[in-house]
Specification:
- The protein is an alpha/beta fold and 418 residues long.
- It contains 18 helices and 15 strands.
- Helix 10 links the parallel strand 7 and strand 8.
- It is globular and about 65 Å long.
- The chain starts with 10 loop residues before the first helix and ends in a 7-residue tail after the last helix.
């Protein structure tokens, strides 16, 4: 078995971490139990480009239990947990190509290594696997029947490909499942982003001005958690509907150039490029901390920051200090990459339980239905979404009501009025 991980000697610690996560992933465990019996993915080759974490490890175990021949590579150079990667190779016989801190050249070599499996299903987190297939490995695209995508950023890229007519196979937007973005993006990103900022800096958030760029589900979660820690939260938006929602939720809303002057901590979650730019660096206060929790490290214009600074140094793990000509210091966390996975451990397992349940069931659905789907991006079927929510409620010991026959009839009729 070919693989490339940091050190197989880390496997024992990784196995414990995988087992610890598994206890908080009861929905995925139920799917894994069914998969072991039914083997719905038997003979299927599946390549996954995901964050290599303990939660992802349990997804890979589930896919393998379903009969798939799997390979895993990292979807971000800083998001790999090296002990988990080692355990997947040693303890679960799953090939992994991922090393935390790998350079861009190695990162793409690992994606190519995963594609050497010649998969028929792809599983992506950011669409880099799909992008490489459509550019450097076009000869393989015809072998793919379908794929899944985990993130907002990836869905944006894939929908752009579909609109331009270049997407060559159907993809399920797992990110858009309600049991994914309502919970993973809001509660997962919210908690893990704050965790990443605190682990990197150990700053007190109470009383700080905490700026969040983007008020989508991720931004809502970060703002909620920062506010809960006692921070004074400011929201930056380009969408008037989201801006007014943020204002109604009790946050200050203002232009980014004004927020730059008062930000103590600034986190971006937009999926767009250079939302913190040169003009912002010029007016930032001394000691400002900037971080990104979007998928790619393009949201902060790091080249501009490098060009403007007179010196730079690492002052803590995942904290780089940039000195401006006027003496101000600006602190960049985790090289502008996902701070929640770079300097922390990513989302709690209980949240990823639903996200990865979607991935597993979407792969099963794709195998059955790909031949009937156009080359486009599709939502997770509602029945899958609701089944995952039902299973999650059951594992939490929560029961809900069902409609009576009379109520169901009323909702499906038009004759009955006041």
């Amino acid at each position: 078995m070919k693989y490339d991980v940091k050190d197989l000697g880390l496997a024992e610690a990784g196995k414990k971490r995988i087992e610890w996560a598994d206890k908080d992933m009861p929905v995925l465990r139920q799917i894994r139990d069914r998969f072991e019996k039914e083997r719905p993915l038997a003979g299927v080759k599946l390549a996954a480009c995901l964050h290599v974490t303990s939660e992802t490890a349990n997804l890979m175990r589930t896919l393998k239990a379903g009969g798939a021949e799997t390979v895993l590579c990292a979807s971000n150079p800083l998001s790999t947990q090296d002990d988990v990667a080692a355990s997947l190779v040693r303890d679960y016989d799953i090939p992994v190509f991922a090393i935390k801190g790998e350079d861009d050249k190695t990162y793409y070599e690992h994606i190519h290594a995963a594609l050497d499996l010649h998969p028929v299903i792809t599983m992506d987190d950011g669409a880099d696997l799909v992008s490489v297939l459509h550019t450097d490995r076009v000869g393989q695209v015809g072998e793919i029947i379908g794929g899944t995508e985990e993130t907002t950023t990836g869905v944006i890229r894939l929908k752009s490909m579909a609109e331009q007519g270049v997407l060559r196979y159907p993809i399920i937007a797992v990110n858009d499942a309600q049991t994914k973005h309502f919970f993973d993006n809001r509660y997962g990103t919210g908690q893990s982003t704050i965790d990443g900022v605190l682990r990197a800096t150990n700053v007190l958030l109470a009383g700080k001005t905490f700026v969040v760029t983007g008020y989508g589900w991720c931004g809502r979660g970060v703002a909620m958690r920062a506010s809960g820690m006692g921070a004074n939260v400011v929201i930056l938006e380009i969408d008037p509907l989201r801006a007014i929602e943020a204002a109604m939720d009790g946050y200050r809303v203002m232009p980014s150039i004004e927020a730059a002057k008062i930000a103590d901590v600034w986190v971006t979650v937009t999926g767009n490029i250079h939302v913190i730019d040169k003009a912002h660096f010029e007016v930032m206060k001394d000691g400002a901390i900037i971080a990104n929790s979007g998928h790619f490290n393009v949201e902060i214009n790091i080249p501009a920051l490098e060009e403007m600074s007179v010196s730079r140094r690492e002052v803590r793990d995942f904290v780089e200090e940039f000195a401006m000509p006027d003496g101000r210091l600006i602190y960049l966390l985790a090289d502008g990459r996902l701070v929640n996975l770079s300097s922390a451990e990513g989302h709690p397992a209980s949240v990823m339980d639903m996200s990865f349940a979607n991935q597993a069931l979407a792969a099963e659905f794709m195998l059955k239905e790909a031949k009937n789907l156009e080359k486009n991006v599709f939502a997770v079927p509602v029945d899958i979404d609701k089944e995952i929510a039902r299973l999650k409620l059951a594992t939490m010991g929560i029961e809900i009501d069902t409609l009576t026959e009379e109520q169901d009839t009323y909702l499906h009729s038009w004759e009955m009025g006041t």
